[in-house]
Amino acid sequence: MLIPCPHCGPRDVSEFTYGGDATKERPDPGSTSAAEWCDYVFARENPRGPHLEYWHHTQGCRLWLKVRRNTATHTIESAEVVGPWAGAEERRRDKGQDVA
Amino acid sequence: MSDLLSPLQGHSEPRVVGAGQGEAGVVLTERRIVSLVQVAAWPETLAQVEDAIASLTHCAPPQRATGSSAREGTVIMAIGPGRFLIESTDPALAAKLAEGVPAPLGAVTDLSHARSVVRIAGPQAAWVLAKGLAIDLDPARFPPLEVAQSAIHEVGVLVRRVSPDSFDLYVFRGFALSFWDWLTEAAAETGYRVDPPAKV
Amino acid sequence: MSGYRLASGGLIDRSRPLSFTFDGKRYQGFAGDSLASALLANGVELYGRSFKYHRPRGLFSAGVEEPNALVTLRSGARSEPNCKAPVVELFEGLEARSQNRWPSLGLDVMAVNGLAGPLLSAGFYYKTFMGPTRKAWMLYEHFIRKAAGMGAGTLLADPDRYEDMNAFADVLIAGAGPAGLMAALAAAGSGARVILADEQAEMGGSLLGSGLPVGEVGGEVGGDAWCRSALAVLAALPNVTLLPRTTVYGYYDDNAFGAVERVADHLAAPPEGAPRQRHWTIRAQRLVIAAGAIERPLVFADNDRPGVMLADAARVYIERYGVAPGRRVALFANHDGAYRTLHALAAADVPVVAVIDPRRSIGTAARAAAEAAGAELLTGHVVTRALGGRRLTGIELAAYDPDAGVKGPAARTLAVDCLAVSGGWTPTIHLASQASGPARWDDTLAAFLPGEPAQPWIAAGACNGEMATAACLAAGARAGAEAARACGFSPSPVSIPAVTEQLVCDGILPLWDARLPKGGGKAFVDLQHDVTASDVSLAHREGFRSVEHLKRYTTLGMATDQGKTSNMAGLALMAHERGLTIPEVGTTRFRPPYTPVSLGALAGQARGAHFRPLRRTPLHDWHVAEGADMMEVGLWQRPRVYRREGESVEQAYIREARQVRESVGIVDVSTLGKIDVQGPDAAEFLNRVYSNGFLKLPEGKARYGLMLREDGFLWDDGTTWRLGEHRFLMTTTTANAAPVLAQLEFLLAAVWPELKVAVTSVTEQWAAMAVSGPRTRDVLAAVLDDIDMTNAAFPFMGVRAGHLDGIPVIVARLSFSGELAYEVYCGAHSGEAVWRKILAAGRDHDIVAYGLEALGTLRIEKGHVAGPELDGRTTAEDLGLAAMTSRKKDYIGSAMLDREGLTEPKRLKLVGFVSRDGQPVRSGSHLVSADDSESPPRSLGHVTSSTYSPALEKYIALGLLEDGRERIGQELIASYPLKGHRVEVEVVSSHFFDPEGSRMHV
After folding, report:
1. Domain count of chain C?
2. Nearest chain A residue (CA) to B141
3. Claim: this prediction has a pTM higher than 0.90
4. What distance, in Å, lies between the first and last C-alpha atoms of chain A?
5. Strand pairing of C80-84 and C70-73?
6. Is residue C914 within a helix (H) or strand (E), and if so which, with residue range?
7. Does the residue C770 lie in any domain?
């Protein structure tokens, strides 16, 4: 399986670490009930078909990605950088040629 | 400086192996680098950090997301959005960068001792590398100056193509000897020559 | 089958004789021979004994589908079983041995299994030996495996090397027959990067040795010559990689392919430096499958007699290898294509006795071929039985009616020594099947074709049902161009060579069973696994009717050939039993590998010293030179003890630990995870990550911190040093260095992207050593240039930067041992120099280097927790660290800290144990009541860490115990029933030594 890392390009899955369900948002600790916390920490769907997942490019650029992957076919629809640099690579790619 | 000990000391000494009467397919050289510093900018300070790097090193940072630039003793490699790895012959580079890039602009981390660098060169360099590196090394797709972070033999490696026939491999220091042993084994097929460790 | 070498013809080089041995007997062949063709040329008839019945078996095919002629190659450490003789290239000095015979191939005592025939039917072993208990099977299995089997592997280490290779291409073409070669020409001309792989040493597939005229009209050339010119064109193109002797065996996600190149299998031993085999991982945008087809046999009684051979194989032995397969040959076939073999036999002057064909009418060209060969043509007939024992002596025939079937009794007997059989062709859809929907049934071929692609591949040629060479060439050209276009290239048309009309597999009359009704004898479906037509019927009777059940119950198609010649007949017989059509019964999906792949090729370089990479600290060489016992901790190599001559491990660590408490010791702690945490929000970030407060940690100070998981359990601990306002150095346990960094990166990306913090692993940047013991200050003061070591200037938990004999260092006053102690960090390349300088300064203070064992002893004496206690099931409260879980802030784990299960008072709590009877306490022991009334006694907890304590002069341990703190003073048993080990222990506080901590604050 190839994951299209926005920074490094398509790389074999062996370079990545699975980070779990990316649809879960960490609740605010101050204003969240125990049940909501349990849902965030323990409850996971196991969908057959489209899924949104975190993947960490552990042996590459070390970016965390949100990957839209079909768990039945392994088809990957998209992979986006998570965090402050989201979208940065699209802006930067092919900005120019480097010279020595 | 005699107190510095390379993890490849005693292993990267000059020799020719398995080339028979012919030319060795690859030449391996340990590059004993002086400074290696990572600079990370914050998203809104990237341009300022690039300017700071350029003025301190006299080398413009690379423009391509996975590119590198080089000028007179300095090599700047793009390793992630807003992150650069800078190799230099200036022993004071980390200190200078720390001063030029204070916390409001970014973070400067000295990695001068954290990596070992091996250059692999020669007509069979790409062939030998491909035994462990799952990256398309076709010169049209991975041209000189291009940088890739990946793994060889489970060891994290940063590969920079120096020229069509030569690559610099930056590996974690603790894995350097294991990696070197793997690389020399992989190069046995084509035959290899080890040149004396280079100070740059 | 009494084969012999023809005076001329074939692609062998008669000027280069090669000698080899089979079962110790010396033979001669020629360069270009396969082992099978060379043995056939020498008149060898018997190649091996069958898997279950030990029946004599001969050569059956000329390719990877060979079910019978399996041999063990070479000897000693290079001995390799189950090699298919037809695909073994002959080399000078080759040694081959037959398999599954005892004491010899000619006299095999196990052949008695054949007499017990009906007993050994499908499921026999299980039914008989499973017995009332599992034990029965366990007892008999050993003997059964010995009696039924394949060749034996060697237990010696493989002396050869194997390698991996990664390759990238636009178009990968699997198979270099007419379709594959044309595809390569068509794709390569466009500039696309093409890899052409073929399992044989010579590319060309069915064209090899073929006299078939291929080429421009008027300037016709033979198939061979055309192949050579096509290959010369391809070899000259820089964008083409030719991989002969390479099998593309597996199709994986995103068009990744596994392939094995047999680099040196055709040599006695690999040349120096070269691998024996190379495993290729190929990524290609498009795959062109040009895998060809495999001929299938026919089912009749005793159809396994040596001398019965696939019809096209007989042709190949004549045309490619210049070997006649017999002296009196008959052909038994149900389609016109097989008649091509008659041309070859006639050209080689081999007498053809008869052609037996179940059809009433056959094609004109086929009839002409039979006439030209001088054979009696018996249409409307089948062969019902092969005669003979260790060699074929004749065949029995009966009339056949397409509607009524075989009409007994046997009408005639013919004396032959070779029977060429063909039941049609089975397209090689294996690769396609690995990446497609269900296979499609084709009535005209009576065969399955590739299903709908689930990944981007294109099938061309015989594997796609295009059987004629002309059709293969055209399909290849089309597929190659289409593949290149799909990759964004613009291929120009290539000229397709004309092929003179040929006999192809036309007009097939499906024939799946040619047995006489109640005829007796064994009619094999799967030769390699000895599965007969009766076994299929039996499976049906016993309810194993789906193809998946049929396969597993009878083991049909589960041998090393994976049913390449047998699957179709098996399916057809089951369909007949069930009254269904073959497509209604369906076929099983093929899985990788297409042909067996050696484990060596899969392991590549990752064996022996390279099984996994080793991680060495900057002080590694010193430890080794000092004779340390090194041990693996994850990938790290760490010194366990530095044994002196005559010392045991225990004596050594006791000496080392005692010396630390009495004078001073130094230990390598470079493996600790070290993470550089920087940025304007670094302190805030750490405050959210650790369970205790970090906001107010002053510069120049270190703090011990706890990290929890989101579920509230303890995860990791370590000290973090504030080096500047916005700069921290975090340390983690050795084991969690990588996961902690990944988690910090996750939190900064996904949870708190607003925080300006950068985290970077600096584990490899720093050499780290802990210097501990009452005389530590004197030692360090002597070598540090510019750090005031007085207690007032450098208090406990202080962090100072400075120089040690000119080398930049950071020193932190931390203590894991409970003694006055400092950790000294320096650049990794300076590590050994700093270590040596400290040792030199410590010489007068009786300094000792200590290893992991003594490190453990010292921390257990202090009751400090480590990996065995941080086992993912303990909370801060369990380990007596509740005071470090802040109630004033939110942090990772805080929200779930107070849930029911974690505050349950009965949870196991950390306590200490002292051995009462002078015996060591084994880690992992269960703690049980000293009162023996309960049997087995209930476990009250377990021992996590144990050691001999030189400070207490007792064996001590840490452990987790129910109501632990309330049990202090009680007596328990630490029980390790697996080793019959019971120790009386007293429950004590986990702070064994200097509980006030006075020693480290001096």
Report:
1. 7
2. A9
3. yes
4. 35
5. antiparallel
6. strand C908-915
7. yes
